[in-house]
Amino acid sequence: xxxxxxxxxxxxxxxxxxxxxxxxxxxxxxxxxxxxxxxxxxxxxxxxxxxxxxxxxxxxxxxxxxxxxxxxxxxxxxxxxxxxxxxxxxxxxxxxxxxxxx
Length: 102
Description:
The protein has one domain (2-101): YaeB-like fold (2-Layer Sandwich). Helix content is 38%, strand content 30%. It has five helices and five strands. A five-stranded mixed sheet has the order 1-5-4-3-2. Helix 1 runs antiparallel to helix 2 (20-32). The longest helix has 13 residues, at 20-32. The model has no long low-confidence stretch (mean pLDDT 94).
């Protein structure tokens, strides 16, 4: 899968060093993958969750660094692209305001 954009992961990792190793590991796994569905994602990353957002789209959410952070993505299986939409601390994620932004 192609990650768009890795820069967001790197920038977040600089601000939140405790997330760096998990983001790097997820990047490595996702870059090597050729997922066709959420079922394929969950075979490797079983805690991946789906959520609906204000735009009526569905996003895929990954737990990062022992659930201290959340990575919110849009996975386009047909083009093998993962779009990084947001990376949040668990506290910010729990406020649910992010759903209105997407």
